[in-house]
Amino acid sequence: MSLKEQLFLACRDFISKKRLVIENVISEIETSLQSETKSSAGDKHETGRAMLQLEREKAGNQLAEIDKQEELLSKIDISKANTTVSLGSVVFTTEASYFLAIGVGEIIVDNRKFYAVSTKAPISQALLGKRVDDNIVFRNRKFKIIHLI
Protein backbone atom coordinates (compact mmCIF):
# COMPACT_ATOMS: atom_id res chain seq x y z
CA MET A 1 0.00 0.00 0.00
CA SER A 2 1.40 3.40 -0.98
CA LEU A 3 2.14 6.15 1.52
CA LYS A 4 -0.53 8.38 0.01
CA GLU A 5 -3.07 5.57 0.24
CA GLN A 6 -2.24 4.99 3.92
CA LEU A 7 -2.64 8.69 4.68
CA PHE A 8 -5.90 8.82 2.72
CA LEU A 9 -7.29 5.78 4.57
CA ALA A 10 -6.30 7.30 7.93
CA CYS A 11 -8.28 10.43 7.03
CA ARG A 12 -11.27 8.39 5.88
CA ASP A 13 -11.13 6.33 9.09
CA PHE A 14 -10.99 9.54 11.18
CA ILE A 15 -14.11 10.87 9.43
CA SER A 16 -15.98 7.56 9.77
CA LYS A 17 -15.33 7.46 13.52
CA LYS A 18 -16.37 11.10 13.89
CA ARG A 19 -19.58 10.40 11.94
CA LEU A 20 -20.42 7.44 14.17
CA VAL A 21 -19.99 9.51 17.35
CA ILE A 22 -22.21 12.31 16.05
CA GLU A 23 -24.87 9.91 14.77
CA ASN A 24 -24.96 8.31 18.24
CA VAL A 25 -25.35 11.74 19.85
CA ILE A 26 -28.23 12.55 17.49
CA SER A 27 -29.88 9.23 18.26
CA GLU A 28 -29.59 9.84 22.03
CA ILE A 29 -31.04 13.34 21.67
CA GLU A 30 -33.96 12.08 19.61
CA THR A 31 -34.63 9.34 22.15
CA SER A 32 -34.59 11.96 24.92
CA LEU A 33 -36.96 14.19 22.97
CA GLN A 34 -39.38 11.32 22.41
CA SER A 35 -39.31 10.22 26.03
CA GLU A 36 -39.94 13.71 27.41
CA THR A 37 -43.36 13.79 29.02
CA LYS A 38 -45.29 16.85 30.02
CA SER A 39 -44.88 17.40 33.72
CA SER A 40 -46.57 19.80 36.07
CA ALA A 41 -43.48 21.98 35.80
CA GLY A 42 -44.31 23.14 32.27
CA ASP A 43 -41.63 25.81 31.94
CA LYS A 44 -38.94 23.41 33.05
CA HIS A 45 -40.17 20.86 30.51
CA GLU A 46 -40.18 23.40 27.67
CA THR A 47 -36.69 24.61 28.59
CA GLY A 48 -35.42 21.01 28.54
CA ARG A 49 -36.97 20.39 25.12
CA ALA A 50 -35.52 23.64 23.77
CA MET A 51 -32.05 22.68 25.02
CA LEU A 52 -32.35 19.26 23.38
CA GLN A 53 -33.48 20.88 20.12
CA LEU A 54 -30.42 23.17 20.21
CA GLU A 55 -28.14 20.19 20.81
CA ARG A 56 -29.82 18.34 17.93
CA GLU A 57 -29.27 21.33 15.62
CA LYS A 58 -25.61 21.59 16.66
CA ALA A 59 -25.06 17.87 16.00
CA GLY A 60 -26.83 18.23 12.65
CA ASN A 61 -24.41 21.02 11.68
CA GLN A 62 -21.46 18.83 12.69
CA LEU A 63 -22.86 16.03 10.52
CA ALA A 64 -23.16 18.44 7.57
CA GLU A 65 -19.50 19.41 8.05
CA ILE A 66 -18.52 15.73 7.98
CA ASP A 67 -20.44 15.36 4.72
CA LYS A 68 -18.38 18.23 3.26
CA GLN A 69 -15.14 16.61 4.42
CA GLU A 70 -16.15 13.27 2.90
CA GLU A 71 -16.98 15.02 -0.37
CA LEU A 72 -13.57 16.70 -0.34
CA LEU A 73 -11.85 13.35 0.30
CA SER A 74 -13.73 11.83 -2.63
CA LYS A 75 -12.05 14.39 -4.93
CA ILE A 76 -8.56 13.12 -4.08
CA ASP A 77 -6.96 10.83 -6.66
CA ILE A 78 -4.40 8.89 -4.63
CA SER A 79 -2.84 7.43 -7.78
CA LYS A 80 -1.97 10.88 -9.11
CA ALA A 81 1.62 12.08 -8.69
CA ASN A 82 1.69 15.83 -8.15
CA THR A 83 4.30 18.18 -9.58
CA THR A 84 2.83 21.18 -7.77
CA VAL A 85 1.28 21.20 -4.30
CA SER A 86 -2.49 20.74 -4.49
CA LEU A 87 -5.33 18.82 -2.83
CA GLY A 88 -4.10 15.28 -2.19
CA SER A 89 -0.40 16.16 -2.21
CA VAL A 90 2.05 14.64 0.23
CA VAL A 91 4.61 17.36 0.86
CA PHE A 92 7.99 16.72 2.50
CA THR A 93 9.73 19.87 3.72
CA THR A 94 12.84 20.58 5.74
CA GLU A 95 10.51 21.33 8.70
CA ALA A 96 7.68 18.74 8.54
CA SER A 97 5.64 16.53 6.20
CA TYR A 98 2.06 17.30 5.20
CA PHE A 99 -0.88 15.60 3.53
CA LEU A 100 -3.22 18.20 2.03
CA ALA A 101 -6.67 16.74 2.47
CA ILE A 102 -8.78 17.44 5.56
CA GLY A 103 -7.85 18.74 8.98
CA VAL A 104 -7.09 15.60 10.95
CA GLY A 105 -3.84 16.59 12.57
CA GLU A 106 -0.96 14.22 13.24
CA ILE A 107 -0.86 10.83 11.50
CA ILE A 108 1.94 8.33 11.98
CA VAL A 109 2.75 6.07 9.01
CA ASP A 110 5.78 3.75 9.11
CA ASN A 111 7.09 5.61 12.17
CA ARG A 112 7.03 8.91 10.25
CA LYS A 113 4.94 11.88 11.34
CA PHE A 114 2.65 13.62 8.87
CA TYR A 115 0.17 16.41 9.39
CA ALA A 116 -3.11 16.00 7.55
CA VAL A 117 -4.31 19.55 6.95
CA SER A 118 -7.17 21.18 5.12
CA THR A 119 -6.32 23.18 2.01
CA LYS A 120 -7.81 26.17 3.87
CA ALA A 121 -5.27 25.91 6.68
CA PRO A 122 -2.65 28.68 6.73
CA ILE A 123 0.23 26.25 6.14
CA SER A 124 -1.60 24.81 3.13
CA GLN A 125 -2.15 28.28 1.73
CA ALA A 126 1.61 28.85 1.95
CA LEU A 127 2.31 25.55 0.17
CA LEU A 128 -0.35 25.47 -2.56
CA GLY A 129 1.04 25.85 -6.07
CA LYS A 130 4.65 25.38 -4.96
CA ARG A 131 7.11 22.82 -6.36
CA VAL A 132 10.08 20.78 -5.17
CA ASP A 133 13.01 23.06 -4.23
CA ASP A 134 10.71 26.06 -3.64
CA ASN A 135 11.35 27.98 -0.44
CA ILE A 136 8.46 28.80 1.87
CA VAL A 137 8.26 31.42 4.60
CA PHE A 138 5.63 30.63 7.19
CA ARG A 139 5.33 32.28 10.60
CA ASN A 140 8.76 33.85 10.25
CA ARG A 141 10.37 30.46 9.52
CA LYS A 142 11.94 29.59 6.21
CA PHE A 143 11.88 26.03 4.90
CA LYS A 144 12.14 24.18 1.62
CA ILE A 145 10.04 21.57 -0.20
CA ILE A 146 12.30 18.57 -0.65
CA HIS A 147 9.90 15.97 -2.07
CA LEU A 148 6.36 15.86 -3.39
CA ILE A 149 4.04 12.93 -4.07
Which descriptors would you attach to this protein?
149 residues; alpha+beta; Helix Hairpins; 2 domains; six-stranded mixed β-sheet; 3 helices; 6 strands
Structural notes for this entry:
The protein is an alpha+beta fold. It folds into two domains: 3-74, Helix Hairpins; 90-148, no CATH class. Helices cover 48% and strands 22% of the residues. It is built from three helices and six strands, in the order H-H-E-E-E-E-H-E-E. It has helices spanning 3-35, 42-74, 122-127; strands at 90-93, 97-101, 105-109, 112-118, 135-138, 141-148. A six-stranded mixed beta sheet has the order 3-4-2-1-6-5. Helix 1 (3-35) packs antiparallel against helix 2. The model has no long low-confidence stretch (mean pLDDT 91).
Order of neighbouring strands in the sheet with most strands: 3-4-2-1-6-5
Identify low-pLDDT runs. none
What integer value in Å does the Rg equal?
21 Å
How much helical structure, as a percent, in the residues?
A: 40-55%
CATH architecture of the largest domain: Orthogonal Bundle
- The overall pLDDT average reads 91
Question: What summary fits the major beta sheet?
Answer: 6 strands, mixed
Task: Supply the helix-strand structural class.
Answer: alpha+beta
Q: What is the total domain count?
A: 2
**% residues in beta strands:** 15-25%
C-alpha termini separation: 14 Å
Q: Would you list the SSEs in sequence order as H and E?
A: HHEEEEHEE
In CATH, what is the class of the largest domain? Answer: Mainly Alpha
Total strand count, please? 6
Specify the overall morphology.
elongated
CATH T-level fold name of the largest domain: Helix Hairpins
Number of helices: 3
